[in-house]
Specification:
2 strands, two-stranded antiparallel ribbon, mainly alpha
């Protein structure tokens, strides 16, 4: 057929071909290629994350071996005993502060009069504090010995690694020039072994000294509450002394040659309560305080964001007029456009200080944790994260409500139900799976946030004191995302600290994966239920 007589649709089809593909095929190839690139990039990120973090547990095991072999584990038993005594001394100091406040504010005494009345209590406190000196001196001497041994071991390991690297590079002569030391660990640990029998005698004298301090004339407490606290102090001291035999048994059973099992490198990381790096003593990598901080901040955020997000979604979808919808929806969704670093600065400059000022109001003194001492804490960070989570929860919950079949609503009205009854008993239950998935995705959003928690959570790497109940949420915390952002720029590539941060990232990866998996399962169930 001549070209002039070809059908018009055939000419159009010919013109839309590119490299032998139709326009539909080109569009499909474009989006399919983008999806493939996304999958490849995600795979590379996952491989890189696991590759960099996989070597941590072997390095952590070596770290623990040095910790035990050099004798630091032995001295740490004594250090804990010293730290517990320091905690008792702080208890006395807190008691003095309360007494001073009562004498000056309630009784109206001057500062000089208050200090004069507290001289007997100060003498009592000093005598009790001095009882630790013999143990403190022994701990200091043994610490010097074990840190010197540890330093020699680490230097020797570094030289062995350097020698092996030179051999691998073909520099046999340079490798032979690297000198290593032969460390006599038995001789280095001899002072530790010799201290074991001496430690029992020192503890006996220590217990006698503390009981003598307690038996001295007790200072007079101005109130019954303070007297009860002082009585509690005496009970704590007796409990402290009763724990001496357990420490002696631990030292007697300590064996520097006992091997460190592989599982110990895992459990020390997962259940470890201290994250301590760049320490002259011992680096410790325990993720538990970071995980606790992340969960606490997320709980505060969800506690605020779920009612706000779900409530706003129900109102906009079921009750609001078209004009109200056009105002409310853009305003809520605009929150997600605010950079998280801006919210963090707002928390530092405004919110944290505002919460601390409000907490000092007398009529709010019944609130647990009030007045707030630290303006940057889990509560401040959680309130800001709630703002970040609200748009996610609102949008997804509103979509779930929108997808409820209209027939459900009409049937309820036909049976005589009111609008409120229909919303509570029909619409919300039908959309419940979608709402739950919205909450889970909101949780995934806040648990992965970095800048807000880094700026506003307080960055204290410690498990909060949960004996205070809800007041624990007013204490500073650190999070998994915050520790990665804070410390990644300071570590040596390939070192144990570097790999520990990647393992924290792997923990976050699995948390996000689990949350998204759970949300997808709920969404699938929701779709089946309305299908």
């Amino acid at each position: 057929m001549p070209p002039s007589k070809r059908p018009e649709f055939a000419i159009r089809k010919t013109r839309t071909r590119f490299l032998g593909l139709t326009m539909d095929e080109c569009i499909q190839a474009f989006f399919g290629g983008n999806a493939l690139v996304a999958v490849i990039v995600l795979g590379l990120i996952t491989v890189f994350l696991f590759r960099e973090g996989s070597g941590f547990f072997k390095q952590n095991q070596s770290n623990l071996v040095v910790y035990r072999t050099a004798g630091l584990e032995y001295v740490d038993h004594l250090k804990r005993q010293e730290e517990n005594h320091t905690a008792l001394t702080r208890y006395l100091f807190d008691l003095r502060v309360r007494m001073f406040k009562h004498i000056t504010e309630v009784e109206g005494a001057s500062l000089a009069e208050a200090n004069q009345r507290l001289m007997a209590f100060d003498d009592y406190s000093y005598d009790f504090g001095d009882t630790i000196e013999p143990l403190r001196g022994a701990v200091y001497d043994l610490s010097e010995l074990v840190t010197a041994t540890k330093t020699r071991m680490l230097v020797n390991e570094d030289r062995l690694v350097e020698r092996q690297q030179l051999r691998d590079a073909g520099s046999t002569g340079a490798a032979a020039a690297v000198e290593t030391q032969t460390i006599d660990l038995v001789a280095a640990r001899q002072p530790l072994m010799a201290f074991k029998p001496t430690y029992g005698q020192l503890n006996e004298q220590f217990a006698v000294s503390m009981r003598s301090a307690l038996a001295a004339e007790a200072p007079t407490m101005p109130t019954e509450e303070l007297a009860a606290r002082f009585t509690r102090f005496n009970e704590l001291v007796e409990q402290y002394i009763d724990g001496f035999p357990a420490i002696e048994a631990e030292l007697a059973a300590w064996d520097p040659n006992r091997p460190i099992p592989t599982w110990k490198a895992w459990t020390s990381f997962i259940t470890g309560e201290r994250w301590l790096t760049a320490s002259f003593w011992q680096d410790l990598y325990g993720v538990l305080p970071l995980l606790t901080g992340s969960l606490m901040v997320s709980m505060v955020a969800l506690f605020i964001a779920v009612p706000l997000g779900v409530g706003a979604a129900i109102y906009v979808n079921q009750l609001a007029s078209v004009r109200e919808q056009n105002i409310i929806k853009p305003c809520i969704e605009f929150i997600s456009a605010i950079p998280s670093v801006v919210l963090g600065f707002f928390g530092i400059a405004v919110l944290g200080q505002a919460i601390r000022i409000i907490s000092q109001w007398d009529f709010l003194s019944w609130v647990p944790g009030f007045p707030v001492i630290e303006r940057l804490n889990a509560l401040t960070a959680g309130v800001l994260l709630a703002l970040i989570a609200v748009p996610t929860i609102f949008t997804l919950a509103e979509d779930a409500l929108q997808n409820v079949p209209r027939a459900f609503k009409e049937a309820s009205f036909a049976l005589g139900a009111t609008k409120l009854q229909t919303i509570i008993r029909i619409i919300i239950p039908a959309a419940l799976s979608g709402i739950i998935s919205a909450v889970l995705l909101g949780f995934g959003r806040v648990v992965g946030e970095t800048m807000v928690v880094l700026l506003c959570a307080g960055n204290r790497i410690a498990i909060p004191d949960f004996t205070e109940g809800i007041a624990a949420f007013t204490q500073p915390v650190h999070t998994m995302t915050g520790i990665i952002a804070q410390e990644m720029g300071e570590v040596v590539q390939g070192g144990i600290h570097y790999r520990a941060l990647f393992v924290v990232g792997i923990f976050l990866f699995f948390i996000a994966l689990f949350i998204n998996f759970l949300a997808q399962k709920i969404v699938q169930r929701y779709r089946i239920s309305i299908g």
